[in-house]
Amino acid sequence: MADGDRSEKALSDFESQVIEFFCDGVKILGLPKSIGEIYGLLFISPDPISLDDLVCRLGISKGSASQGLRSLRELGAVREAEVTSGRRVYYEPDVELKRLVGGFIKEQVRPHLSSGEEKLDSLKKMVGDMPGDVRSDFYAGRLERLSRWSSRAKVVLPLLQKFLGS
Amino acid sequence: MADGDRSEKALSDFESQVIEFFCDGVKILGLPKSIGEIYGLLFISPDPISLDDLVCRLGISKGSASQGLRSLRELGAVREAEVTSGRRVYYEPDVELKRLVGGFIKEQVRPHLSSGEEKLDSLKKMVGDMPGDVRSDFYAGRLERLSRWSSRAKVVLPLLQKFLGS
DNA sequence: CTCTTTGTTCAAATCTATTTGAACTCAAAA
DNA sequence: TTTTGAGTTCAAATAGATTTGAACAAAGAG
């Protein structure tokens, strides 16, 4: 059985549809399609998968697979499996919603929130330096509102993670 | 004063930075930059603004401004102001976080959730039709997990809106 | 009714982000 | 040490999304 048992066969209709499902999902999150394909195949595969498996079965380039896997590792959505038959690395998905969401928030959301708060501070300083007329009062009010949005977000995110806990 | 009081002047440094702030924001949400520019200018302008104002002050095309305003109206992020001096329509932003998030969830998130559930059902049917072996049990388990993710989302979203209430 | 002003539509142009593929690094095997 | 195979990197190609601009529609003014 030259490659009978090895999973280098073309995707089944079922697998393709699961993968498409995840492609839709990651698009909403603003992540590239290849990320969805890779995670989708890992998610629906009973056994861990190597980079070469991804390349063969998904028909994507090695570069894409490599970068996609890196992003997924950084997100904490994928991890190395124990297998390591020889020197090849196999991957398996993390399938706990709590951790997936947590990783996404930590990697994709929090950084933006932080840099946003810095910019807000700098804007407040600009308003502070303006001649104090009606318009600068209006500006100060608006910026105050943005600050409130930001703190709301900071309160809600941990709460969100809590509610998703298993 | 040909156009002295009319707000067709170039953007001040302050205004530009506020607008940039919103451009960053909408990018995270996967919305086009022009949406951020338009909402940003509306947000920081003490008075309602017409489509032509947006074109002049932001230096974008009429088409972009028109389409951007439509998206923002659909999201409920912007509404027509009472002013209507003559036949021109003026716009003002909705600045309540609760409503902004609510609109985003309703327009951008829920539709995807619904279509996702349909696809999930169809996938479950496929597994049901498979010869009942070890693999199909694994598949059923995975799909079950996806269903749980989906219901979690349906519980969390209204909760989220509640927490953002004023 | 016709002219003018306001706003919309959509195909084409442009811009941005993703994907590719070839060169490269690193480590294990021979 | 040299060779081989796995994985990474990044500039260039590609794909996909946004923006433009010109033609068009709608409605008040003359």
What is the structure about, briefly put?
2 copies of one chain form a homodimer. Chain A is mainly alpha-helical and 166 residues long.
Question: What can you tell me about this protein's structure?
Answer:
Two copies of one chain form a homodimer. Chain A is mainly α and 166 residues long. The first copy, chain A, folds into two domains: 13-93, Arc Repressor Mutant, subunit A, CATH 1.10.10; 97-163. Helix content of chain A is 67%, strand content 5%. The first copy, chain A, has helices at residues 13-28, 33-44, 51-58, 62-75, 97-128, 134-163; strands at 49-50, 78-80, 90-93. In chain A, strands 1-3-2 form a three-stranded antiparallel beta sheet. In chain A, helix 2 (33-44) crosses helix 4 and helix 3 (51-58) packs across helix 4. Chain A is elongated and about 70 Å long. The two termini of chain A are 42 Å apart. Residues 1-6 of chain A have low confidence and may be disordered. At the A-B interface, helix 1, helix 5 and helix 6 of A face helix 1, helix 5 and helix 6 of B. The first copy, chain A, binds a DNA duplex (30 and 30 nucleotides) through residues 32-34, 50-52, 60-67, 69-70, 86-89.
